[in-house]
Design brief:
The protein is an alpha+beta fold. It is built from 16 helices and 18 strands. It has a five-stranded mixed beta sheet with strand order 6-8-7-3-9. Helix 7 crosses helix 9 and helix 9 (238-254) runs antiparallel to helix 10.
Length: 466
C-alpha cells in the first residue's frame, strides 16, 4: 500500500542543486542542505576518533568550560610587567616560525618593534640583526596572549590584561593602533613609530588609570550586548568600542590628567571602530583555553596564522600545533591594491571564531558584508552552516535574527572532516611586501590539512580499550 503525506510537504535535498530547483519550480517547499563526502584519505582516523567512547562527554565538558568562563578587563600595563618580556624578546601571531620562513608583514612588524624599542637606529640595521639571530621571538599563544595580524609585541608595548575569575586565568593583548599603515600590518615608517610612542607615553597610562579606577569591566557582557547591536566581534566592533569608552569616560574625566591628553585619548578610541577587538581577543582566548586539555575532546581551541602557516590546536591534545599553508582571503581591496598585493592570512584574531563569534556570528552583522564582500543572504547562510561544525551553542551570546539562538560554539574537528566544510573567518588583509600596511579585508578559511593532521593525532591518542 502506498501512503501519501497529508498537509504541506517540505522536501530536504542534499547534493545536486538541479533537483531542488526542479522541485521549487513545481511549488514544492524545499530546504537545501550542504553536504560533501568525508575528506578522502581521512576515513580511518576519522572512524577511530568518532568511535572513541570518551568523545561525546569530553566535548560537552570542553564546551561547558568555554561557555562558563569569565573575562573582565582588570588592568593595562607594559608587556615587560604583564608578561615578563625581556629586552630583545618579541611575541608574534600564529604558530612557531623562524625568520627565514616569515612573511613580509611579520618581518616588517618585527623590524618596526626593534626600532621602537631603541635597539637600533634604522630599519636596515633591525633587519640585519633579526636575520643574524640577535633577537628572539615566540608565539603570543605560548604565554597565554594574543595579537592581531602580525601580532608583534615588544617589552615596552602596553597590553590589556583580562582575568577569568571562574578558572583563575589571565590573558593579554596589545592596544589597537587603528587601520591602514600600522605596525600590525607590517608597516614601520616614522609615523608608525611615532604613533606607538604616543600610545606608550599617553594612551597606555591613561587607560591604566581609567581601568583601575573603574574596577573590573565585564567584557563578555559587552560582547553579548554588541552582538545584539550589529557587531560580530571580529571585523565589526563599533558598538563594543563605544560601550567600552562609556565605562572609561567618568574615570578619565576625574583622572586629573592634562585635558589635552584626555581629549586625545577619547578622540583616538572613539575614532577607531576596531579598538574593542583587542579586548575581545583575550576574552575569547580565556574562553577557549578553559576548554583545552580535555582527553578525548575533538573541540578546536586555537586557530591562528603567522602569514605563512595556519595552525590549530584541539582540546584533547593540549598545546600541540597542527599546521597547513595560510590562504589568501577573498574580499575587497583598498585604493589600487589587488589580489597580487595581499599576503596570505595572518593574525591571532581567528580566536574570535574559535570562541563562536566573528565569521560564526555573521548573521547578526549584515552590515559587515559591505566590508568583507558578499550579501546579507550569505551572512545568514554562513552562520547556519557553522552550527553544523560545532558541538553546541553559547546561549549568553544570542543572535536576534536567529530567534535569539546562541552563537555556534566549539568547532568539532571531526565534523569538519566528516562534512568537508571549513570554518569561516572574517579578516583584514596585509600587504605582501613589508612596510605596505593594510590592503583590504575579506573572508578566508583554514586549510583542510590542519584538521586532517589533528584528527590523525587524536586517533593516535585513542586508548586501545576506547
Amino acid at each position: 500500500m502506498t501512503t501519501t503525506p497529508t498537509g504541506d510537504l517540505t522536501v530536504v535535498t542534499a547534493g545536486a542543486a538541479m533537483f531542488a530547483d526542479t522541485l521549487r519550480s513545481q511549488g514544492v517547499a524545499t530546504t537545501e542542505v550542504s553536504w560533501l563526502p568525508p575528506v578522502a584519505g581521512s576515513e580511518g582516523a576519522l572512524t577511530s576518533v568518532m568511535l572513541d567512547r570518551r568523545r561525546t562527554a569530553a566535548n560537552a565538558q570542553a564546551l561547558d568550560a568555554m561557555t562558563a568562563a569569565g573575562a573582565s578587563l582588570v588592568d593595562v600595563r607594559p608587556a615587560r610587567d604583564a608578561l615578563g618580556l625581556d629586552a630583545g624578546h618579541f611575541l608574534h601571531a600564529g604558530p612557531p616560525i623562524d625568520w627565514e620562513r616569515m612573511s613580509g608583514p611579520l618581518r616588517g612588524a618585527l623590524v618596526g618593534a626593534v626600532v621602537y624599542e631603541g635597539l637600533v637606529e634604522t630599519p636596515e640595521q633591525a633587519e640585519r640583526r633579526l636575520a643574524a639571530g640577535d633577537f628572539s621571538f615566540e608565539p603570543a599563544h605560548h604565554l597565554g596572549a594574543v595579537g592581531p595580524m602580525a601580532g608583534v609585541v615588544s617589552p615596552s608595548m602596553w597590553m590589556f590584561e583580562l582575568h577569568d575569575d571562574v578558572h583563575d586565568r589571565r590573558s593579554w593583548c596589545s592596544l589597537n593602533e587603528g587601520l591602514g599603515k600600522v605596525l600590525r600590518y607590517g608597516a614601520y615608517s616614522p609615523d608608525v613609530i611615532d604613533r606607538l610612542r604616543w600610545m606608550g607615553d599617553v594612551l597606555g597610562p591613561a587607560l591604566q588609570t581609567a581601568t583601575r579606577s573603574a574596577g573590573p569591566i565585564d567584557v563578555l557582557a559587552i560582547v553579548a550586548q554588541m552582538i545584539q547591536m550589529g557587531d560580530e566581534g571580529h571585523n565589526r566592533n563599533r558598538a563594543g568600542t563605544l560601550m567600552l569608552l562609556k565605562e572609561w569616560l567618568p574615570a578619565l574625566i576625574r583622572s586629573g590628567l592634562p585635558t589635552d591628553d584626555v581629549a586625545a585619548v577619547v578622540e583616538f578610541v572613539s575614532g577607531n571602530d576596531h579598538f574593542f577587538l583587542n579586548v575581545v581577543m583575550p576574552a575569547c582566548k580565556l574562553m577557549t583555553v578553559a576548554g583545552n586539555g580535555v582527553p578525548g575532546s575533538t573541540v578546536v581551541t586555537t586557530m591562528a596564522r603567522n602569514g605563512t602557516d595556519f595552525g590549530i590546536q584541539v582540546s584533547g591534545l593540549g598545546d600541540r600545533w597542527f599546521t597547513g599553508p595560510a590562504q589568501v582571503a577573498e574580499g575587497l581591496y583598498l585604493a589600487n591594491f589587488g589580489p597580487d598585493d595581499a599576503n596570505p592570512d595572518i593574525g591571532d584574531s581567528a580566536i574570535t571564531e574559535t570562541a563562536g563569534i566573528g565569521g560564526f556570528a555573521m548573521a547578526t552583522a549584515p552590515a559587515i558584508v559591505r566590508f568583507v564582500g558578499g550579501t546579507v543572504a550569505d551572512a545568514l547562510a554562513t552562520t547556519r552552516r557553522m552550527y553544523d561544525l560545532c558541538v553546541g551553542e553559547n546561549r549568553r551570546w544570542a543572535l536576534p535574527i536567529m530567534d535569539f539562538r546562541g552563537t555556534p560554539t566549539g568547532i568539532d574537528a571531526t565534523s569538519v572532516l566528516r562534512t568537508g566544510q571549513l570554518p569561516q573567518i572574517n579578516t583584514g588583509m596585509a600587504g605582501r611586501v613589508a612596510g605596505v600596511g593594510q590592503v583590504g579585508a575579506g573572508l578566508v578559511s583554514p586549510p583542510m590539512e590542519c584538521f586532517e593532521a589533528a584528527v590523525e593525532g587524536l586517533a593516535e591518542a585513542v586508548p586501545p580499550t576506547a
